[in-house]
Amino acid sequence: MNDPFVISNSVDRPNLHIDVQRRTDFGRDLDVICKHILSLEDKRVLPSIVYCATINDVEQAHAELAAALKGAGAALAA
What is the pTM of this model? Predict the structure, then answer.
């Protein structure tokens, strides 16, 4: 390649926080997630992403989080 255009940026993202929790008990884990989401200052601007190992886990987590957060002002996307 002759005369390539190279861009170099920092990967420092102080606005991002990554937290990994070992799964222990599904109900307890969802309680921890709900408390975290509800502790955020602005639930529309500070999203949380929940990764699950299986589609079944995703569907169960979504249903239970939606029920737990209903009416609390937290938006939940599929």
Answer: 0.58
